[in-house]
Amino acid sequence: MPGEKNRLLRVTEGLVALIQGFWTTFIHLFRKPITEEYPEYKRPLPPRSRARIILTRDPDFEERCVACYLCSASCPVSCISMQSAERADGRRYAAWFRINFSRCIYCGLCEEACPTLAIQLTPDFETCQYDLLTLVAEKEDLLVDHGGKNQEYNYYRYAGVLVDGDKGGHIQEARPVNLKSNLP
Amino acid sequence: MGWLAGIILLLIKLGVVLVVLLTAAAYLVYVERKLLSRLQIRLGPNRAGPFGLLQPLADALKLLTKEDLVPEGADRFIFLYAPGVVAASALLIFAVIPFGRGWMFMGHEIPMVVSDLNVGLLYVFAFSSLGVYGVALGGWASNSKYSLMGGIRGVAQMISYELSLGLSLVPVVMLARSFSLVDIVAAQAHYPFIVLQPVAFILFFISAGAEIKRIPFDIPEAENELVAGFHTEYSGMRFGLFFLGEYVTMVVLGSLVAVFFLGGWRGPLLPPLVWFSIKVLAVVLVLIWIRGTLPRLRYDQLMHLGWKVLIPLGLINIVVTGGVLLWWGS
Amino acid sequence: MPQLIIDRREIEVPAGTKVIEAAARLGIIIPRFCYHPALGSVGACRVCAVKFLEGPVKGVEMSCMTAAQDGMVVSTTHPEAMEFRRYVIEWLMLHHPHDCPVCDEGGHCLLQDETVSGGHGLRRYLGLKRTYRDQYLGAFVQHEMNRCIHCWRCRRFYQDFAGYRDYGVMQIGNRTYFGRFADGPLESPFAGNLIDLCPTGVLTDKPARFKGRRWDLERAPSLCLHCSLGCNITGSARYREMIRVEGRLNEAVNGYFICDRGRFGFAYANHPERARTPRLDGQEVTWEEACRTAAHRLTRISREYGPGAIAVWGSTRSSLATLGVLQRLCREQGWLGPQFFNSPSRERKVKAAISRLDAGVAVSLADLEKADFLLVAGADPVNEAPMLALGLRQAWRRGATVVVLDPRPVHLPLEFEHLPVPPGGIDLCLDLLVRAAVSHSATEGLLPEAAAAFFNNLSCEYPGDQPLQDRLVSLGMKLKESKNPVIVCGLDIVRESTVVLAADHSRLLRAAKDRAGLFYLLPGPNAFGAGLLSLAGEPSSPSYADMLAAAEQGRIKALVMMETDPFRTFAGQPQFLAALDRLEFLLVLDYLPTPLTDRVQFFLPTTTVFEEEPSGWVNQEGRCQQAAPIYVGGRPISQEGAGSHPPRVFLAGIPGGEPQPGGQTLAALGVALKGTGAPLYLEELDTWLAELNPVFAPLLESKVTHPGVRLLPEARGDYAFSHPNKATLRDVPDDHLELLLVDWTFGTEELSGYAPPTQEVEQPPRLTMQSRDALRLGLGPGDRVSLALGGESITLDLEIVENMASGMMVLPRHRQLAGQKFPEGPILVPLQNIHKV
Ligand code: SF4
Ligand code: SF4
Ligand code: SF4
Ligand code: SF4
Ligand code: FES
C-alpha cells in the first residue's frame, strides 16, 4: 500500500533528520566559537544603531528641538518628559527636557516621530549605572553641538511661524498679503 | 555497639553522598552551560575564575543573596515549601542507588549504597512521583496565571509519562527477578540489560527525559509561552532549589540508567566507583546533547507520544519479554 | 417632520434641520469646518460634501447647506463624496504652513484630524505659499494667520453671535484676512470663544501657550465659579497645574460658550503663594494633629464660655458639601452661625430672591434667550454675569425688546433701551411699565384676586421727567404686546424692595399673560445654596458686623472662617482687624492666598473646585450641578522645579498635596469633636439637607447629572404679593451723591483677582459720574479726584459719561482699592467731600 510506504518513508526521513541534527551539533563542538568578547574587543557599530539619545542642533547652531511633545507621545514607555516655552524672539523651545534612560527601551520611535530631526539615537550604548537616578538625563546631558545624522535640516526655515524678519521669508513662501491694497 | 556503628556509618554515607551529589549538580550546571554553548559555537561562562570554573560558586552566592519574594495573594506556606519538595524528592531517590561494590572495612562489609531496600524500584517511583507535588503546588501557590498553567502542564506531563516509565522497567524486574536495585545490578553480571532490552532502554530514556522536564519536554516551563512556567514567581534560593532539584534529578537519572541498563558499577579494569561515574556522566552528556539539538515538542505531540506510542510499546515489550522468559526461562 | 435615510439608517427630524445635523443625531459625524451648531451654516469650506442618492436633491451637495427633506437618501461614504472631500482638504492645505510642531492647536486640531482622515499626506502643490502678517490681539488670544482656512467661524461668532465689531474680515478671495483693522486687544469679553471655535491654530489660547498638548492633559467636566450663572466648562490640568479652560455644552445654561472671566480666571488654583500645609501656631503639622488640636481648643472655649462664644463664617464660594457640613456642625455644637453673607442687606436680598423663585417663573439662560421682552432691573450683565449679556443678545437677535433700568453706564452688545434711573427709582419704573402692560387685564377683571390687589397698590404717577415718561409709556405698550416677558433682576446695587418687586411683577405678568419669567443674579457661585441653608437656619445668624461687635465686647472668643476673605468682601475691615486681636482662637480654612492665610496662627488648607473630589454648586436659577475633579492637587511642577526641570527625588507623597476638600476637613473636625457617636457628615449630607429644607429633596432622588437638578419648589397658586410703598424716582438728597460700589468684568471678582491673565487685562479703578454732576462739581474729563469717605480718602481718575443716572458716582469694588474699608449700604457722599487734585 502506498500509504504504508509513505509512513515508512517518513519514519526513515525523521530518523535521518534526527541523526543529522545530532551530527551537526556534535560537529559544532570542534568549531571555533564565533563569540566576540565584549570589553576586550569593541565591535564598531553601524551609525544607525539605536542607543544613547542626543538632542542635536541645526546649522545655525540653535537647538533643533521645539518641544512639540511628539516624541514623548510616541514613546511606548513614557520616559520622555518636557516643558515647552517661548523664547523672547517667539521661538519655541524646551525649558527642560528629560529622558529617563532607566525606562528607555531604545526602540527609536521618538527619533521617528521627531519633525525637526532633533532627537536622535546614537551607537553609544555603554550607559549602565548602579544608581537609577543617575540614568535620568536632563537637557544639558542630551544636548550636543552638532547636527547628528543630518547636518543640513533647519526646521525654522520651512515653518510658517516667525522667529525673525518679516513673514514670507521662509522656503517656498510668497510675500505677505498687503491688507491695505487690492492690487494682486 | 553494632547499631551505633551502623548509624554512624549511615550518617557518614549520607553526608558523603549529599556533598558529592550537590557538588556534582552544581558543576553539572557549569558543564551543561559550557557544553551547550560549544554545541552552539559559543564560549559559555568564562569570566568567573579560570575557564569560568567558579561560575557555580558565583551563581550560588548570587542566588543566596537575592531577595526572597513572595507574590501578593500567594498561598504563603505552600509557596515557601514547594521548592523543598522538589529538591528533597530528587535527593532522596539516591538513597537506594548502589554506586559500587561492597567495601571491606575492619572486617565488616560496607555496602556502597545508602540503603538497599528490597522494594528499591518502587521507592524510586514513589519519590519521582512526589516531585510532581513540588511542581503542582509551586505553580498553584504562586497566584500567577503563568505559574498555574506551568504547574498544570507539569502534572499532566509527569503523570502521563510515569506510566510508560513504570512499564519500561517491568521487563527489567522480570529479568532480575527483584525490585532491589542492588539485585538488579547483580543480575547484570554477564551483560548489561541494554543488550537484552534495547526497547525498554529507549522507552525508559524518553520517559525519564519527560519526567525531568528537560528539552524537548520542557513544556511546563516553556519560556516563550509561560515566562518560566511553574517557577515564574520564584526568586533567590527558592528558585535555586527548583534549579538544584532539576540537576540532581539529572544525576539521579544518569544513575538509574546506569543501574537498570548499563550494568551499574560493573566494568573491567577500572574501580567500580569510576565505572559508575563514567556511566552517569555519559548519560548526562547525552541529555545535554539532546538539549542542544532538539526543539521543544508541542503539547499535543507530547501527549500523543506518551499515550499512543510509548505506553503501547511498553505493554508489547512486557508481553514479548514475558513470552520469551516463559519459552526459555523454565 | 421630514423623514430621510442616511447611510441606510432612517431618521425623522424637525423641518428645517440640516442634513449634517440629522446625521449627527444618528451618531454620524460628517466632516465640517465652517458649520457650527451655534453659528449655523454658511457653506464656506465645502468639506461636508455628501452624496444624495435619491429624493429632491441629487448628486454631491453640502450637507450643512441642505435642509433635510422627505425621501432623501444620503450616503456619507459614497466614493464620489469621499473623493470630493479629499480634494477639498488638499485645496485647504495648499497654503498651510509647515507648523504643526510649534502650533498650539496640534493634538486637538480639526484640520489635522480631517487631513489625516481624508488621506491627504503629501503636498503636491509646488508653488509659493500665501502668507499673512499676524496681529497682537490682547492678552488672551494669539494670532497666527498663515494657518487660516477661511471658514469664517471667528467672524460669525464675533460679530453676529456676540455683537462686537472690532474683529472681522478684510480683503477678498484667496487673500481674505481675519483680524482687526489695527493691532490691539479684542474688545469683546467673549473673545476667548474664538479659541474654541477656530478649527485651526490661527486663534489659540495665549495664557496656555505651549503649556502642553491635549493628549497630556488631565481633563474633566467642571463649572465656572466666577459668577452665579454656573457656566459649564472643561478644565485641563497638567503637571499639577491648571492649564486651560474651555466652554462645555450645556443647552440649559451657557450653550457652547463662556466668557473670558470664566475662561482665564482659573489660575488662582496655581497661585504660588497658596498655603498648602495645615499650620498650627506657625508650625506645620499633620492633619490628625491639626484636627485634634482644633477640636480640643474649640471644646475648651465652648466649655468655658458656652457654645455661643464660637462664631462661624462661610461664604458663597464654597461647595454645597462644605456649606452643608458647616451648617450641620453649627447646629450640633450650638455655635453662632454660620453666616454665609458678608452684609446683612445682601443676605436679606438673597433670601428674598430665593424664597420667591419657583419652578413656575424661574427661567434658565436658555429659556431667557426665547423671551420676547426682557426687563433688566438693576443689573449690568457684561460686568456682573457676562454670559447673561450673550443670552440677552440672542433674545434680541430673535426680535426681543431689551430694557435696562439701571443707574450705571450699562453697555450691551445689542440695541437696547437704557433708562438710567437711580436705584431708588427702579421700583417706580418697574411699577409703571408693568402697570401699563397689564392694565387692560386688570380693568377687564382678568387678574386673580391677590394679583389685582397688588396691581391696585402700584405707583401710577409718572415722574416729572417728560422724556423718561414718554419712553416708559412706549415701552409699556411693547411689554403689553409681548407674549413671553422675563424680568432680570440684579441683586448688587438695587434696594431690597426691588428684589421683592421683581418677583411680584413677574407673577403679575404671568397672571396676565400665562407666561413670564424671573431671572435673578446672585452674589457668588453658590449663593443659592448658601441662601437655601440660611433660609432653613431660623432664627437667622447674626451678621459679620454683629459678631465682630460681640467679639470686641469679649462675648465671642473663637472664630471659624471657612473659605471667606473679610479683607476683600466685608465692608467693615477696620472693625474686623480690631476684633481679631481679642479672639482666643481663630481658625481659617481656605484655598486662596488671602491676606489672612499668612496672618493667622491656625490654618487648614482646602482644595479648589478643580482638585480631589466632585463638588455640587447651585446656580442663580436653583440648578444644582456637579463639578468633577480634574487633577490630584499638589504644588505645580513648574513651581517645584522653579521653571527648570523638577527635582530628581523619589517621594512617597505629592509635594504640597495636603489640602483636602473643605467639607471633608469639617467632617473630620466634627468627628474629633463628637467622638465615636458622630454622624456620617458627608455620606448622609443629602438626607440631612433634605430634612433641613425640602427643596433639597431632588438631590436624594436623582444623581446630579447633566444638565443639573433644579432645587426649586413647585409653582403654587397662593403666591403672597407684597405691599409696596409708594415709589419715587429719587431718594437721595440733592447735596449728596450716592456712591455705588459695582462689579467689573475684570478686577472686582474675587477668584479671578488671583489669576495673572485676568489681572493683566483689568483696568485701573476709576470714578464714573454723569456730566451734569461733574459740571456741578466743576470737574472735567481727565481730572483726578479725591474722595473722602468716613475718615478714608482715595484718589482716582475721573470718567465722565452721559448714559448714567445723575446724582450718582460709580466705583468698582476693585481689588486694587481698599474699598472694603467703606461703610456698608447706600453710601451718601456730601458734595464737599469730592475734590479735584
Ligand atoms: S527610544 Fe523608544 S523608549 Fe527610548 S525614549 Fe525613544 S521612544 Fe522612548
Ligand atoms: S519630537 Fe523632536 S522637536 Fe518634538 S519635542 Fe521631541 S525632540 Fe523636540
Ligand atoms: S492649525 Fe492644525 S494643522 Fe495647522 S499647524 Fe496648527 S495644528 Fe497643524
Ligand atoms: S481664523 Fe480660524 S475661525 Fe477664523 S476663518 Fe480662519 S480658520 Fe476659520
Ligand atoms: S461645513 Fe458645510 S461647507 Fe463648511
SSE topology sketch:
The complex is a heterotrimer of chains A (184), B (330) and C (837).
Chain A: H1 2-28, E1 53-55, H2 70-74, E2 80-86, E3 92-100, H3 109-113, E4 119-121, E5 136-137, H4 139-142, H5 155-158, E6 173-176
Antiparallel strand pairs in A: 1-4, 2-3, 3-5
Chain B: H1 2-39, H2 55-65, H3 76-93, E1 103-105, E2 108-110, H4 120-141, H5 145-176, H6 181-187, H7 193-196, H8 198-211, H9 223-226, H10 236-261, H11 272-293, H12 299-329
Antiparallel strand pairs in B: 1-2
Chain C: E1 3-6, E2 9-12, H1 19-25, E3 49-54, E4 59-62, E5 73-75, H2 79-92, H3 110-118, E6 129-131, E7 141-143, H4 153-161, E8 168-170, E9 177-179, H5 193-197, E10 203-205, E11 218-223, E12 232-238, E13 241-247, H6 260-264, E14 279-280, E15 283-284, H7 287-305, E16 310-313, H8 320-333, E17 336-339, H9 344-355, H10 365-368, E18 373-377, H11 381-384, H12 386-397, E19 401-405, E20 417-419, H13 423-443, H14 449-457, H15 466-481, E21 485-489, H16 496-513, E22 517-520, H17 527-536, H18 544-552, E23 558-562, H19 566-569, H20 573-580, E24 585-590, H21 595-599, E25 602-605, E26 615-618, E27 623-627, H22 637-640, H23 662-674, H24 685-692, H25 698-701, E28 709-710, E29 736-742, H26 756-761, E30 766-770, H27 771-777, E31 784-789, E32 792-801, E33 808-812, E34 827-830, E35 834-836
Parallel strand pairs in C: 1-5, 16-17, 16-23, 18-19, 18-21, 19-20, 21-22, 23-24, 24-25, 29-33, 30-32
Antiparallel strand pairs in C: 1-2, 3-4, 3-5, 7-10, 8-9, 11-12, 12-13, 14-15, 14-25, 26-27, 27-28, 29-34, 30-33, 31-32, 31-35
Helix pairs in contact in C: 2-3, 7-23, 8-23, 9-16, 9-17, 13-15, 13-16, 14-16, 18-20
The complex binds iron/sulfur cluster (4 copies) and FE2/S2 (inorganic) cluster.
One iron/sulfur cluster binds at residues 65-71, 82, 113-114, 116, 118-119 of chain A.
| Helical residues, percent of chain B | 55-70%
Q: What is the typical, i.e. mean, pLDDT of chain B?
A: 82
Main beta-sheet annotation of chain A: 3 strands, antiparallel
Please name the CATH topology of the domain at 53-158 in chain A.
Alpha-Beta Plaits
Order of helices and strands of chain B: HHHEEHHHHHHHHH
Bound molecules: iron/sulfur cluster, FE2/S2 (inorganic) cluster
Give me the number of helical elements of chain A. Answer: 5
Mean pLDDT across residues of chain A: 90
Task: Name the shape of chain B in a single word.
Answer: globular
Low-confidence stretches of chain A: none
What is the domain tally of chain B?
1
Q: Number of helical runs of chain B?
A: 12
Structural class of chain A: alpha+beta
User: How are strands sequenced across the largest beta sheet of chain B?
Assistant: 1-2
